[in-house]
Amino acid sequence: MKKLQNVTIKGTKEGLTLHLNDSCSFEELKKELQWKLSETSRLHDGNQLITVKVQVGNRYLTEQHAEELETLISQKKNLVVDSITSNVMTKEDVEKMKQEQEVVSVTGIVRSGQVLKVPGDLLLIGDVNPGGTVIAGGNIFIMGVLKGIAHAGCFGNSEAIIAASIMKPSQLRISKHINRAPDHYDEEEPREMECAFINEDNQIMIDKLQVLMHIRPNLTRLERGR
Question: What would the DSSP string read from start to end of 25-93?
Fold first, then answer.
C-alpha cells in the first residue's frame, strides 16, 4: 500500500506552495515537512529569498500551530512564509464576516466632535456636520449633506465607496487613501448625488452616482432578470 503523502511542494513563479494533508496528525505533518524542506533547500544554494505559501485544507490551525509551521519553515535557508491559509473558519471569523457584510441604518445628525463607526456598510439618513466623522468597514451612503469626514473601507477595503446627496466633505478617506476637500465650493452650482471611489491610478475621485454601475458592478447583490 502506497504511503500517503502528507506534504506536497509545488514550485511557482512567485516561489513555493506547500499543500499539507488535513487528515494526518499535526506531529506527523511536521516530521514530513521538516524532511521535505531539508531536501528542497539543498536544491536552492543561492542567496535569493523564496516566498512560501502554505495551504492546510480543512485543518483547523490554532495560533500556536500556525506559529510552529512558520518557525519550522523559516529555519530553512532562504525560505520566507508569505501566507498560511485554511478552509476552516472560527466562529469569531464568521461573526466578523457577518458584521462586515451587514448594513447599519442610522437616522440623525452627526455633529461636530461626534464619531459614528460601524463594521460593515453605513446608511445614514441625515447630515454629517463639519467636525463630525463617519467610519465604516464597507461602504458609506449618506442621504443628506456630508460636510465632515467620511472614512470608508477602514479595514483595508479599497473597493469601498462613499456616496452622499450633497458632497461637501472636509476630508474623504477610502482604505489608506486620503482626499482633502477643495478650499471652497460654489454654493450657486446645482448639485446632485455624488460618489467617491478609488480609480485605476489609486486616487480618490468624485463623480456622479450613475458611474457606480460601471466601476462597481458588484456593489449590490440584486441579480437582474435575464
Answer: -HHHHHHHHHHHHHHHHHT--SS--EEEEEE-TT----HHHHHHHHHHHHTSTTEEEEEEE-S---HHH
Check if the beta carbon of residue 99 is closer than 8 Å to that of residue 123. Answer: no
pLDDT in tens, 136-153: 999 999 999 999 999 999
CA 167 remoteness from chain centre: 26
Cα 161 to chain centroid, rounded: 14
Residue with cell 457577518: 98
What is the Cβ-side half-sphere exposure of residue 146, based on CA atoms within 13 angstroms?
Answer: 32
Residue 30 grid coordinates? 511536521
Quick one: CA torsion of 197, 199, 201, 202, rounded to 10 degrees?
A: 30
DSSP helix/strand/coil, 103: strand
